[in-house]
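User: Predict structure, ligand zinc ion.
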Amino acid sequence: MVAKVLQRPTLVLNRNWQPVNVTTVARALVLLWNESARVVDPADYQLYTWEDWAKLRPGNGEDCIQAVRFKLRVPEVVALSGYDRLPVAHVTFSRRNIFKRDHYTCQYCGAQPGSEELTLDHVLPRSQGGVSGWENCVLACMACNKRKADRTPEQARMHLRRKPVRPTWKPLYADHELRIESWSKFISEAYWNVTLRE
Ligand SMILES: [Zn+2]
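Assistant: Predicted complex:
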């Protein structure tokens, strides 16, 4: 039971209270213990050091960590003391992520024949100097790929449904499976404004 509570997620904020990560309760307690972070009480935004936090007693029915001599409250949010950067939300250029970005859809005819039947097309063909990257690779069905061959869309008189761009997906914590109610106070405003960098 203790182990289970220790594996629960804790939201990590940087020094400016911008969410940067999700860690485990176990790791959050280590950060607290070695004074790298303090617990944020989502109810009143008060900050607690390890010493202060250990003095608090869990309420009746509240989840807690049973230590040898005392019970600890479970930290849901911690704020790092010395880190003020934002996470680099980098979306890896990979086959899998291109499928995801293009929604398993041929970017020329709109067909969704299934991943087996989709190929990666270089908009500007490699033979004409086209590079492998977010802005030059799209999904194409077999038929469209064959039709386009080693030509640009213009040369093949084919039309791209969308201009291929680097996706800007939500950082890790945004779709963490176990969403803690109190996190919304910290994620809602700050997180939507996070600039996604390369
Ligand atoms: Zn197609």
